[in-house]
Specification:
Elements: H1 2-47, H2 54-74, H3 80-92, H4 96-108, H5 114-143, H6 157-182
Helix pairs in contact: 1-2, 1-5, 2-3, 2-5, 4-5, 5-6
């Protein structure tokens, strides 16, 4: 009888431990989503920078800062050099059409007046979409117990591109909705 009671107590402690871990994971994920949301806005802001090419550098910097904060949230060691490399590989894996759009938007800033206006209409959407996608993929990786050291950016190319496209569409819809509301 004592063995059965002991077994039940061990099972009860194991269940409590699992519940605590699940609650911690939910708290981490909720906090991580807030972090990604915050940096998605910062990414859009970086895309508005009027100086060509600085906008791209600023977006990458915002994404590295986001990764740092995400890794702190999960209590995982952060390596800035590896984070920069990860962001570069993910951004470099964008579909040719998106890369062309980013390049064209940046280069448009060299054209006085109309070029800057057109760039400011599109680059913030692309910047926020890519920032969101980096965050979304990294949360998933961290939730599975991953680190920067075992993250293979090349393995996530397709998922990253799909997330960017989805976020870009959502941002465009939100922008149109905001214009319609203020009109």
């Amino acid at each position: 009888m004592a063995e059965k009671e002991q077994e039940q107590e061990v099972q009860s402690v194991a269940n409590e431990s699992t519940q605590d871990q699940n609650a911690q994971a939910s708290e981490n994920e909720a906090a991580a989503k807030i972090i990604v949301s915050k940096y998605t806005g910062w990414g859009a802001g970086a895309g508005v920078l009027p100086i060509p090419l600085w906008d791209i550098v600023a977006v990458g910097g915002v994404q590295v800062l986001m990764l740092k904060e995400l890794y702190q949230q999960y209590g995982v060691t952060f390596n800035e050099k590896k984070a920069r490399s990860t962001v570069s590989v993910l951004l470099g894996s964008l579909s040719p059409a998106l890369l062309l759009g980013i390049t064209a938007s940046t280069l448009l800033k060299f054209v006085p007046g109309v070029g800057s206006t057109l760039a400011m209409a599109s680059l913030p959407i692309l910047a926020s979409a890519s920032t969101y996608a980096v965050g979304k993929i990294m949360i998933k990786h961290l939730e599975q117990g991953g680190t920067l050291e075992d993250f293979d950016a090349k393995e996530h190319k397709e998922e990253f591109n799909e997330s960017v496209e989805s976020a870009k569409e959502n941002a465009s819809k939100a922008k149109k909705s905001a214009k319609a509301t203020t009109a």
